[in-house]
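User: Hey, my collaborator sent me this sequence without any context and asked if I could get a structure. I don't really work with proteins. Can you help?
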Amino acid sequence: MSTRKPVRKTSSTRAPARKPVSGTPVWVMPAATVAFLALVVGVFLVYRYYTTPPPPPAPTQDTTSQVISIITTLPSSEFDTIAQGSANNLIKPVSGTTATGATGKPLVLYIGAEYCPFCAAQRWPLIIALSRFGTFSGLQTTTSSSSDVYPNTVTFTFHGATYSSQYIDFRAVETSDRNQNQLDTPTAADQDLLNRYDSGGTIPFVDFGNHYSSTGAFYSPETIGGMSWLALAESLQQPDSPQAKAVLGSANVITAAICKMNGDQPASVCSTATIQNIEKTLK
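Assistant: No problem. I've predicted the 3D structure and written it out in structure-token form, which is a compact way to encode the shape of the chain:
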């Protein structure tokens, strides 16, 4: 009588293992990811809220007049002491027919916006330089956007202001207010210069009679960050202050470009050794 050995099951005959079924619904992980991202954004917004300096209290009309008086009557000796200071010379030569303004004089064209912190920084030296050739009226204080870099940088706006000079014309285009609502519209001629010399649309843009142009601020807005209008104006009376070296150094560079495009008039401004030396750096 023969005996038969029991047949052993090989691995190929075993029942396949079953993958364990997760008890977690499929929507949980995406929802958790969304919740985590929302938490990160919330933390960032809270941090931004507590670290963004609030806008300084708006100055009274008397204080505004005091600030304008200080920055437009600085002594020539201080400009000579500072020379170019810490300013970056961003002025480049351009070629074309001399651009003139409403009264037929060489035109300085500014295009910017109130929300722009770099425009906010550049208006200070631009106002100071232009005041060496003429007179502003109607300048009003404002600050740059509270949600952009260098928030709430104190400055002025050219919107609604006027300028008169026997040497040059000045036209300012503030395209938007500090909340990015539309303000001024460039003319076709303004837009042509902007397209020709500032194809990237960088602001602030300044054209000096179609002889020179510049884009951007000549110093960092951080230099004047957190200051009130009056505190900044008073710091410009101190030649050793970082603000004076940046702002008045920039004003000297702008002055040199205006002198160069205007045949060095008036001589009382343009013939100083400081301005003449800076002119030599303008090709």
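In plain terms: Residues 33 and 39 are 10 Å apart (CA to CA). You can pass these tokens on to your collaborator as they are.
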